[in-house]
Amino acid sequence: MNKKNKIVDAILSQGMLPLFFYADAEVSLEVIRSMYNAGVRVVEYTNRGPEALSNFYTIKRTAEKDMPDLYLGIGTIKTGLEAEAFVDAGADFIVSPIIDSEVALVTNNHDMLWIPGCMTPTEIHVAQQYNAKLIKIFPANILGPAYISSIWELFPGQLFIPTGGVEVEAANIAEWFRSGVCAVGMGSKLISRNVLDKKLYHQLYNDTLKALELVQLSK
């Protein structure tokens, strides 16, 4: 099995994809370490600040030594240049909020998993032309589980992951899985600004355990 398929399988097994950005590299590393200790093996760091690339280098080098079975991807990639920079930094996969042909070209050239963001059936169709194994439904808080239920049969076999507004609570997670998603993206509802600013790593560890448990019960 190639690496691309291994990462997809890891996301499906985990049932969720945590994602965040923080300007401080050490805090970012400790956040990932806390989630790793709780059982997370796939994480999306997001390109949402000027420190993202240097932070990614730091996190990746440490993770290779201390968390060797962690897949670390980069999100919020919107251009081919950004994609190339993070490929060079060691990204295991790339996530975008949009569909961009240059990003698709970079990831295809490197035989990497690319998870493009889609909002409409037309965008989903375009993403499939780029052989997207996994498609991010974004913004999920606007579209809602009913949207997935409505379009799921139009794209048989396609894997969807909603990102944006997914709550760490049983009813919300269960509703998403009932709608037909294969996993859920977990951003600020899991890794809140308060957790980041106050370095509440123990709380994050416990919240991650809870989120993983709720996901497994809902799958």
From TrEMBL:
<comment type="pathway">
    <text>Carbohydrate acid metabolism.</text>
</comment>
<keyword id="KW-0456">Lyase</keyword>
<protein>
    <submittedName>
        <fullName>Bifunctional 4-hydroxy-2-oxoglutarate aldolase/2-dehydro-3-deoxy-phosphogluconate aldolase</fullName>
    </submittedName>
</protein>
<dbReference type="InterPro" id="IPR013785">
    <property type="entry name" value="Aldolase_TIM"/>
</dbReference>
<dbReference type="InterPro" id="IPR000887">
    <property type="entry name" value="Aldlse_KDPG_KHG"/>
</dbReference>
<keyword id="KW-0119">Carbohydrate metabolism</keyword>
<comment type="subunit">
    <text>Homotrimer.</text>
</comment>
<comment type="similarity">
    <text>Belongs to the KHG/KDPG aldolase family.</text>
</comment>
<dbReference type="Pfam" id="PF01081">
    <property type="entry name" value="Aldolase"/>
</dbReference>
